[in-house]
Amino acid sequence: VRQNKTGGKKSGKKDVFKGALTRLIETGGGNVTTLSCGGSTTNTGAKQLKNLTDTLKKCSDNIKKACDPSNLPNPNITEATECNNTMTTFSTKVDECRKKGGTEACTCWVKAELTTMEQKVRKCALSKKANEMAASLKKCRDAFQKCRKYEDD
Questions:
Q1: Dmax of the chain from CA atoms?
Q2: Is 53 exposed, middle or buried (0-12, 13-18, 19+ CB in 10 A)?
Q3: Could you give the 3-state DSSP secondary structure of residue 111?
Q4: Sign of CA dihedral 36, 40, 45, 48
Q5: Of residues 117, 111, 112, 116, the one with CA closest to residue 88
Q6: Nearby residues of 8 by Cβ (< 8 Å), 6 or more positions away
Q7: Hey, which residues does 40 pair with through a beta bridge?
Q8: What pLDDT, on a 0 to 100 scale, did the predictor assign at position 43?
Q9: What pTM value is reported for the model?
Q10: How far is residue 65's CA from residue 50's CA, in Å, rounded to a whole number?
Q11: With contact defined as beta carbons under 8 Å apart, do 80 and 129 qualify?
Q12: Residues of the chain with confidence (pLDDT) below 70
């Protein structure tokens, strides 16, 4: 949920680079297809203006694509909640067994309830989902940072 908020915030800022784009186009003579610098459309300055404007023009779409919460992998909240609850209960039961000694400990460790919970915990794949979300958020931040860098140039 928190990660979706991050994506949503970045996605909501997707148009923040339009002002810089407008200023670049004005600096280059006002025509985006024939940007000029110092009266030339082929010198290093004109080429850099073209590079910057081409990149900034793509920012809104790139940020929306990478950051919009609808494009981020959404975890199954029900599954995550169930896994979390099972892990918490399992941990509590394991702690109870650790505190016992002798025959009582043996009986505790072989209870069907503990085995069933262990099997459920093993099926929980929360780290895979978390890694997918982390990778998606990295792409989102990278898209935003690229635009910020080009804006600053």
A1: 92
A2: buried
A3: coil
A4: positive
A5: 117
A6: 67, 68, 69
A7: 37
A8: 93
A9: 0.59
A10: 23
A11: yes
A12: 1-15
